[in-house]
Design brief:
single chain; 196 residues; mainly beta; six-stranded mixed beta sheet; 20% strand
């Protein structure tokens, strides 16, 4: 809860990795307005709520890898400022917000609202089967989106229409079939489409 950090208002990095954390109370980090990096890797977090990260207006990087997160509420990341970039992925050698290998079965509309400066988003290795318009709203600066190894069956038209800076889109090979090939006519020639 908030009282744990009340005297740490100048803290810039907080590593809570591998602490068996299962839940995070709303506003737990509210007094950490100068925090730049938060490491929550390898815990037992199952859900992210709209107020989980309230107050983290200076956050630059967030590590949520290796958590059984099954749901992320709308506007959960809206508290972050324009400087938020995710974390540096050594695999991709770029700045990416990595939400891969969690247990996400669905994305709420406006999940990523407030992340307009985000360049890369990795949602690979989740359970996403249905993508719809509004799920990627707010990601106006997103250039790279990775959806590899998800059981995607349906992508609504205009799902990616707000992603005007998109250059790379990777999606699972299982998505490709004859009826879905028309989906790709919505992309301009500068978008690199990948199947993996």
């Amino acid at each position: 809860s908030t009282h744990h950090f009340v005297y740490l208002t100048r803290l810039r990095d907080l590593n809570l990795a591998s602490n068996r954390i299962a839940t995070i109370q709303n506003n737990s980090f509210a007094c950490l307005t100068k925090l730049e990096y938060l490491y929550l890797r390898s815990n037992s977090i199952k859900a992210i709520h709209a107020q989980t990260f309230a107050g983290l207006s200076s956050l630059y990087g967030l590590d949520l890898l290796n958590n059984p997160i099954g749901s992320i509420e709308s506007f959960s990341f809206a508290h972050f400022g324009a400087q938020f970039k995710g974390i540096v992925s050594s695999k991709l050698a770029m700045q990416v917000f990595s939400l891969n290998n969690l247990r996400l079965a669905t994305l709420n509309v406006n999940t990523f609202d407030g992340l307009s400066a985000l360049v890369g988003l990795d949602l690979s290795w989740n359970g996403l089967s249905y993508l719809q318009q509004g799920q990627f709203a707010g990601l106006t600066g997103l250039a790279n989106l990775y959806l590899t190894a998800n059981p995607i069956r349906t992508i609504e038209s205009n799902t990616f229409s707000s992603l005007t800076a998109l250059k790379v889109l990777n999606f699972p090979e299982t998505f490709l079939n004859e009826t879905q090939k028309a989906f790709f006519y919505n992309f301009n020639e500068t978008t690199q489409l990948g199947v993996s």
